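Deliverable D2.4 — example input (structure tokens):
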């Protein structure tokens, strides 16, 4: 009977070790699930932010168009004021220097209006680039989440295989010790 006690202790130790390996595999898989959920949440946030950036791009174009329109109206008002001032001096507004002054004001006003449009387009382009970057990041995060989930499943499977190996190896050791003790008694 005393020879059986070491075998029982060895068997209990083997069972505890196998249980710990199994639990470690489950924990690794659970951690991977949480990491994948976190990656997917971050991806959802990136997609949301990309939509906001697209809205900002559209808004930039609309604001630019409104500002350009207001500026052109202002230029026309300035030219009108020039014409009135020139006409008040008994000068023909449709001839000579008067036309040149008005043409210069219209030309410079058009350059400024086009600058306003260009700046709005550049701002919109920046938001569109940001939106595309955020969509790409979301795609990468979703892939990372899938990879983390797969890694967790692999870790759990590896742990289960390790459990099986430990149990088989431990059973072999127990059998060897049991038969070894029996042979020593004979």
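Example output (designed residues):
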């Amino acid at each position: 009977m005393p020879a059986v006690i070491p075998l029982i202790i060895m068997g209990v130790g083997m069972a505890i070790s196998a249980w710990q390996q199994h639990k470690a595999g489950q924990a690794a898989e659970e951690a991977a699930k949480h990491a994948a959920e976190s990656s997917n949440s971050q991806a959802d946030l990136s997609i949301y932010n990309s939509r906001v950036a697209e809205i900002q791009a559209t808004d930039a174009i609309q604001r630019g168009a409104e500002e350009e329109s207001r500026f052109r109206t202002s230029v026309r008002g300035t030219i009108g004021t020039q014409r009135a001032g020139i006409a008040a001096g008994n000068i023909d507004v449709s001839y000579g220097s008067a036309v040149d002054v008005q043409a210069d004001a219209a030309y410079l006003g058009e350059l400024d209006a086009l600058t306003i449009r260009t700046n709005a387009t550049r701002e919109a382009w920046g938001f569109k680039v940001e939106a595309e970057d955020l969509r790409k990041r979301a795609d990468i995060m979703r892939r990372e989440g899938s990879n983390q989930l797969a890694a967790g499943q692999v870790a759990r499977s590896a742990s289960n295989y390790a459990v099986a190996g430990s149990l088989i190896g431990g059973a072999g050791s127990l059998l060897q010790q049991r038969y070894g003790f029996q042979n020593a008694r004979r």
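DSSP finds two helices and no strands in the chain.
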